[in-house]
Design a protein that fits this description.
2 copies of one chain form a homodimer. Chain A is of the alpha+beta class and 720 residues long. The first copy, chain A, is built from 18 helices and 29 strands. In chain A, helix 3 runs antiparallel to helix 4, helix 4 runs antiparallel to helix 5 and helix 16 packs parallel to helix 17.
Chain lengths: 720, 720
C-alpha cells in the first residue's frame, strides 16, 4: 500500500488552470430549459473526456466525513477512464482544512479502470480529498509511438511528440512566471531559487529531447523517443487541459488516538468513600486513581456529577418514592444547588473536581463526563426557561420515558420548542464550561432522544474550537439511529456486543463492525456491563463468565469499557427476572466495594490492559480476521499491525474444557505455509511450537477463558 | 408488493407548506464561516427531527436516472426515522416530468426503520420521485394514549388529542380555502364540489371527536379516543410541520416496451439479391421481410446504409487494398455520393428505404439503423469541415484503431476539437434526419470512442422530442465504460454473453445482470454472434452448438439478437485461428444465402420466438433464478411473471447425453413443497409429471439442447 507514495511526483500544490467540475457543469445545464440554447452556453463541456466515478471511501455521497485517528492512512480508490484508447493520468489531492494548499499523489491503476492512492493524516481536524483525472496526451503519444514501425510514420509521430514536449516546457515556464508574481516577501527565497534551478534544468532537457525528435534520423527515432525518465519529466510539467475533478470534496474527520484506542472504567464517585454508608466525594475518588490507573485504564468515566433533583427523586431499586436519605439517580439532574454546570454538593466543589482531573492526568488517566441533557423537576431551567419544556394542558410536564423504562424524576427538554435557539446555545455552553475545566471526553446519555441536527451542530461547534474533544454516543437503539449519530459526528458508539454471546453471533457482528463500509464512520466501544445492563451470562454468572466477556471485549474491540467495581467484583444479582437492572443498583444508592477481595478480577484486567498497550495489533479494529475451528465453542481470531500479530483462541464454554483444531488463514497472518513457529501466550507466559495452519488447542475454563498468543513477525509474506 | 397501493390515501397533490430539504439547509450553513452566527441564520433547522436516508433505487446519488419500461413498477425504499419515540409518517411522491402535480402514496414500515412503497410508470418520458417523512403528532398521541391508565392522566391526554384533532380540522379548512383561491375556470367543478362535500363531512367528524374527547367521562375516554378510522381521517387532514424530503429528486427514464423485450435480427441488405453475385437493394430486402417476421423477430437491424468510401476501401477478408469491384465495408462511411444522411446508391433511394420501413412496420417489424460516427477519407465532411478531424503534421489524418483492430478505411471524428459544437449539432442532425424518416431504434457503433458527454447530450436532446427512441450501445469494452454508457442514457447494451460458455460463467454473469444494483440502468441485449464475432464454440461448431447458444440467449435475456442468415445457416468458418472474424466476412463482400436449406435453424428460431411472445416470464430480466443440479453440464433456471412461470433445463454438452437431478427453489416458483404438478415442454410438446423440488432430467443433444418447461400457475404461495 505504501508503494503509491514512493513514485516521484512534485508534492507542491498544482498550479495548473482550475479544473472542471463535471457535476457542477451538468447542474448549470439542468437549470436551462431551452433545448436549442447553444451547447457551450448550456454548460455542456465538449472538451471534457475523462470521467471520475465511485470515489471511495465516501459516506452518503459526501454528506458526512469518514473518520480516522492521527497517523492513520486514507486509501482512496476511484473509477477513472475516458473514451477511446488514450492514456489517463489520475491524482489524489488532499489537504487539511486549515491549509490553503493541496498536496497530491499520483494514483496507480489497479486494472479494470480502478485507481488507488493513499495518504496519511498527521494532524487532527478535518481533511478534504478529491480525485482529478485528465487525458494524458504525452503518455498516449509515448505508448502509441512504441507501436509504430514505418520510417515516414515514425518521423511524423516524432514531430507530434516534439510539439507536446515543447508545450510542456512552455507550460513549465508560464507556471514559473505566474508563481513568481504570486509570491510574497514571506516565501523561502532559497527553496524558491533551488526549485527554479531544477525547473530550468528540466526544461533544458525537454527542449533538447524535442529538438532531437525533430532532427533525428529515422533509424534512431525509436531510441530517442522512448526514454521513460524524460517522459516522466515532461508529464510532470505538462498542463492538464480539461481535467475532471470529483465533486463534492470528500472529508475526513481526524481525531486523536484515544478515539481509536482506549480502555474505559466507569465509576460512581459517591461510592468511593473509605467507610461504608458515607457519601463519597471527589477527594475520596482521588484515592482510587492509582487503583484504576494501575489496572491499565485510559479513561475514567463518571456518571453525571451535577446536583441531583429532590422532587420526585427515585428511591432504592427505582422506587417511585424516595425514602429519607435516599441519594437519588445522578441522571435526575438539577436542584436548587444548580444545574448542568454545577457540582453535586455532596461530591465536593468545582475546585475539588479540577484537582481530581489534574491528579488523574498525572497518572495518564483522562476523565470522561456524562452529558445527560434532561432536568429534574427542580432543575433551575424549569423556572427560568419554562419554554424549554413541553407543558401539558394541566400545567404539568410529561416525565421522560424510554420504553420500557420510565423516568418519573426526569423532565425531557424540548429541543424543537419555540426557543430552541436559546436552549441549544445553553447546552453548547454546558459543553464549553466543562471543556474550560479541562474535560475532553464526553459520554452522551440517550442522544437518540434529541434531534440529530442538534448533535450535528453542537459537535461541529465544539470541534471547531477544540478538535481534540471525543464524544461517545450511548445509543443501543435501532441500528440506523446508531449509525446516523456516528455519521454526524460522534467519535464512538456503544454496540450490541453486550448481547452477542455465541460463536455465530460474535463472528457475524464483529465481521460487520470491522469490514462493512460503515467502519468508515462507526467506531465501536464494547461494554460487557454498564450500570443499566447486567446482561445474559453475567446474571448469576461467576468468575469464568466475567473473565470470558472481559477477554472478548478487550481483544475484539480496540475501545472497550467496564462498569466497575461491579465488574471486577463480579456483581451478578439482577433486580428481577424481567429486567437487566442490577439489584441494589448504584444508580439509586451508595455502594461500598471491597477492592481487596482476593477473588477480584483486577489482576486479570491489569494483565489484559498491559497486553493491549504492548501490542499495536490490539489498538485498532480493521485487521480483525476470524479463523476456522472444528469446535463451535472455540472462537479463533487474529489482529495484526505491521509486524505485530496476536491470535486469540477463546473457549466460549465457561463450564467445560473444550479442545479442537484451529485452521489459520496463514496468508492473512503473513506466516509461511508449512514452517514451524513459536506462539507465546501473553496471559500465561506459556510457549507452544505450532506448525502450518492446523494446530490443536485445549482450554479449561477453570484455568482461564483464552489463549492470547503473540505470533512471530511475518516472514516476507504480505500481511493483508 | 401491490399492498402499498391499496391503503386509502388522498391521491391529490399535497397542499401543505413546502417541505424542508435537509441537505439544502446544511449547504447554506457550510457556506457561512462565522461560528457565532445566529443558529437560524446559519441554516440549522432546529424544528426538523425526521431523517430520510439511503433512498433506493438510486444511481450515483441521483446523478443518473434509473430505467423502466412502460407499465413496470418502481419499488422505492428508504431509511426514515426521528429521534425519540414519536411516530413517523412517510410518503412516496412521484410525477411525470410533464405533470405539475405530484402524486403520493403512504410508505409502509418494513421494520428496522426501512420503509417501502411502489408506483407504476404508465407513460414514457422522465419521472421523478422523492420520499418525505415527518413526525406524526396524531399517531404518536394515539399510540401513547393506549398506554395510559390513571383517570386524571387520561383526561389530560384526551385534551391534548382534542387539540391535535381540532388543529387537523383547521388545517383542512385552510387548505380548502387556499385551493379554491388557486383554482381557475378550467377545473372540473363537479369533482371539486364532491371533494368539498367529503372534506366538510370529515371535518364534522373530527370536530365531534375532539368535542367528545374534551367532555368524555374518565371511564369512557379510552373507548372514545381509540378509533382507528377517525385517526386515519385526522392524520390525512393534519399539517405536516417540519417534513423532510429526500434531495435531490431521483429520476426514472421510462421507455417503451421494446426497450425491455425484443428479438433482433441483423441483416446486410446488399446480400439480399435473389441471384448470387448481384448487389442487393432495399427492393430485394422487401422480399425478406416475411421470412424475418415469420421467424418472430421484432427488430430488423441494418448495418450502415450510407455511401461507402472509395479511398482506402477495404478488400475481401479485410485486405488493405480493395480489388476492382470490391464492395467495401458499410462502416467506411461517406463518398462523393454523400455522408451520414445519404443512402448508398447501390442499395437504392431514400424513397426505397422509406418503403422498406413501412413494409416492415406492416409486419410488426421495426427497422434499427446503425449509427457509426466516423468518415471514409472521401466523406464530404473531410473537405467541408477539416476542423472536425485531427490532422498530423504531414497533412494526413490518422486512421482509426480499436486495438487490435485497424481501420485504414476510416477517419475518426475529433469530438473535442475546436469546433466540437458544430460537429455535435451536425451529428444530432443525423439522428433527427433518420427519425424524420420514421426510424426509432439506433444501434450505435463504438460509442466508447466518442466522449461520454456527447452521448449524454445527444440522447437527452433526442429523447426530449422523441422519447420513444431506443439506443443500443455497441460496447463490449471495459465494464465500467459499458456501465457509464448505460447510465448516461443508452437503453440497452451488448454484453459479455458472447464469451460466457460454462455453467459457472453463465450463472455468475446472469446473476450479476439480473440481481446487481446495476440492473437499475443496464439492460442487456445478448448476441451469440455478430458480423464481428464468431466466437468460441460456434467456430467450427455445428447445429448443436448454434441451437444451444440460441436457446441460452433467447431465454436468459429478454432482449437478444442474431446476425443472420449466418446464424441460422450455421456459418462457422473463422478467417484464422487468431481472430474472431468470419472467413469471407459479409463486412467486406456480398454473400448469397440459401434460406431454403433443409438444415436451417429457422424452424427452431421461430418456435423459440413464439414461446417468448407467449410467455411474459421471458419478457423481462429481473425474475431470473438459477436452480441447483447435480450435473455441471445441466444448467437450470426459471423466469416468472405473475402467474406465468417457465423453467429451462439446458444441456451445455453438445456432444453427449447428460442426465441428473434438478433441485428447484419451489418457494421462488410459488409451488407447494410435496405436491405433484405437470410441466409442459414448449419446445417438444411433451408433458411430464414432476413432484416437489427434486426431479430427474435427461437431455440428448441430438434431439435438442434444452427443456423449456411451462410451470403450473403458483398455488397460493407468494412468488418472489
Amino acid at each position: 500500500m505504501a508503494a503509491e507514495e514512493s513514485t516521484v511526483w512534485p508534492k507542491a500544490p498544482p498550479s495548473n488552470p482550475p479544473v472542471q467540475e463535471a457535476s457542477e457543469r451538468r447542474k448549470s445545464h439542468l437549470r436551462r430549459p431551452a433545448a436549442r440554447a447553444s451547447l457551450a452556453d448550456a454548460g455542456w463541456a465538449g472538451h471534457v473526456r475523462a470521467v471520475v466515478e465511485n470515489v471511495q471511501p465516501c459516506v452518503d455521497a459526501g454528506r458526512f466525513p469518514i473518520k480516522r485517528a492521527v497517523g492513520e492512512q486514507v486509501t482512496v480508490e476511484a473509477d477513472c477512464f475516458a473514451d477511446g484508447h488514450d492514456h489517463l493520468s489520475c491524482v489524489l489531492q488532499y489537504r487539511h482544512e486549515n491549509d490553503a494548499a493541496w498536496s497530491e499523489l499520483p494514483m496507480l491503476e489497479l486494472g479494470n479502470d480502478r485507481w488507488r492512492a493513499a495518504f496519511t493524516v498527521d494532524r487532527i481536524g478535518v481533511w478534504r480529498y478529491a480525485v482529478t483525472a485528465w487525458v494524458d496526451a504525452l503518455g498516449s503519444w509515448y505508448a502509441e509511438f512504441a507501436r509504430r514501425a514505418e520510417d515516414a510514420d515514425l518521423a511524423v509521430a516524432a514531430r507530434m511528440g516534439a510539439d507536446l514536449i515543447d508545450a510542456a516546457a512552455d507550460n513549465s515556464a508560464a507556471e514559473q512566471r505566474a508563481q513568481k508574481r504570486r509570491r510574497g516577501e514571506e516565501q523561502d527565497r532559497r527553496r524558491e531559487e533551488e526549485l527554479g534551478r531544477v525547473r530550468d534544468e528540466e526544461r533544458g532537457r525537454m527542449r533538447a529531447w524535442a529538438k532531437a525528435l525533430r532532427q533525428g534520423s529515422a533509424d534512431r527515432l525509436k531510441a530517442i523517443a522512448l526514454n521513460p525518465k524524460l517522459l516522466d519529466i515532461a508529464r510532470r510539467h505538462a498542463a492538464r487541459p480539461n481535467a475532471v475533478r470529483s465533486a463534492p470534496d470528500l472529508r475526513v474527520s481526524v481525531e486523536r488516538e484515544r478515539a481509536r484506542f482506549g480502555a474505559w472504567y466507569e465509576l460512581f464517585p459517591r461510592s468511593t468513600a473509605a467507610e461504608a454508608g458515607r457519601h463519597g466525594t471527589f477527594r475520596d475518588t482521588l484515592g482510587w486513581l492509582d487503583y484504576v490507573a494501575d489496572m491499565g485504564f485510559d479513561v475514567l468515566y463518571l456518571p453525571p456529577i451535577h446536583p441531583i433533583g429532590e422532587q420526585h427523586r427515585k428511591g432504592r431499586n427505582n422506587a417511585v418514592q424516595a425514602a429519607t436519605g435516599d441519594v437519588g439517580s445522578p441522571w435526575g439532574i438539577g436542584s436548587a444547588a444548580g444545574g448542568h454546570t454545577a457540582i453535586h454538593p455532596e461530591l465536593g466543589t468545582l475546585e475539588d473536581f479540577r484537582r481530581l482531573l489534574e491528579a488523574a492526568r498525572r497518572r495518564g488517566l483522562e476523565i470522561a463526563l456524562d452529558m445527560a441533557f434532561q432536568a429534574a423537576p427542580d432543575h433551575p431551567f424549569v423556572k427560568a426557561h419554562p419554554e424549554w419544556f413541553r407543558w401539558r394542558p394541566d400545567g404539568t410536564v410529561q416525565y421522560a420515558e424510554n420504553p420500557p423504562k420510565k423516568y418519573q424524576d426526569i423532565y425531557p427538554l424540548s429541543f424543537d420548542g419555540p426557543d430552541w435557539h436559546g436552549l441549544w446555545q445553553e447546552l453548547l455552553g454546558v459543553f464549553r464550561f466543562w471543556i474550560g475545566q479541562g474535560v475532553r471526553i464526553f459520554r452522551v446519555d440517550n442522544p437518540h432522544t434529541k434531534p440529530f441536527v442538534f448533535w450535528e451542530w453542537v459537535i461541529a461547534e465544539i470541534k471547531r474550537s477544540h478538535p481534540d474533544t471525543i464524544f461517545l454516543a450511548e445509543a443501543f437503539t435501532r441500528p440506523r439511529i446508531m449509525h446516523r449519530l456516528a455519521k454526524l459526528g460522534f467519535s464512538q458508539s456503544y454496540t450490541y456486543f453486550t448481547w452477542r454471546y455465541n460463536r455465530r453471533e460474535l463472528t457475524d457482528y464483529f465481521t460487520e463492525l470491522a469490514q462493512s463500509p460503515a467502519r468508515e464512520y462507526f467506531r465501536p466501544n464494547c461494554w460487557p456491563n454498564t450500570p443499566d445492563i447486567l446482561s445474559g451470562p453475567l446474571r448469576h454468572g461467576g468468575r469464568p463468565e466475567f473473565s470470558l466477556r472481559l477477554v472478548l471485549a478487550a481483544t475484539l474491540a480496540a475501545n472497550y469499557g467496564i462498569y466497575g467495581p461491579a465488574f471486577e467484583l463480579m456483581e451478578n444479582r439482577p433486580r428481577d427476572d424481567a429486567s437487566e437492572e442490577y439489584l441494589n443498583s448504584e444508580k439509586y444508592e451508595l455502594r461500598h466495594w471491597d477492592l481487596q477481595r482476593p477473588d477480584s478480577l483486577a489482576p486479570l484486567i491489569t494483565r489484559i490492559n498491559h497486553i493491549r498497550r504492548a501490542n499495536p495489533a490490539l489498538q485498532s479494529d480493521w485487521s480483525l480476521r476470524f479463523h476456522a475451528t472444528d469446535n463451535d465453542q472455540l472462537l479463533c481470531y487474529s489482529k495484526t499491525a505491521g509486524s505485530n500479530g496476536v491470535l486469540m483462541v477463546v473457549n466460549l464454554d465457561t463450564r467445560f474444557t473444550q479442545s479442537g483444531w484451529v485452521d489459520l488463514d496463514l496468508a492473512a497472518l503473513g506466516l509461511a505455509a508449512d514452517a514451524a513457529y513459536e506462539v507465546h501466550d501473553l496471559l500465561t507466559g506459556a510457549r507452544y511450537t505450532w506448525r502450518g495452519a492446523r494446530n490443536f488447542v485445549r482450554l479449561d475454563p477453570r484455568a482461564g477463558p483464552a489463549h492470547i498468543l503473540q505470533l512471530p513477525a511475518p516472514s516476507g509474506v504480505t500481511v493483508r
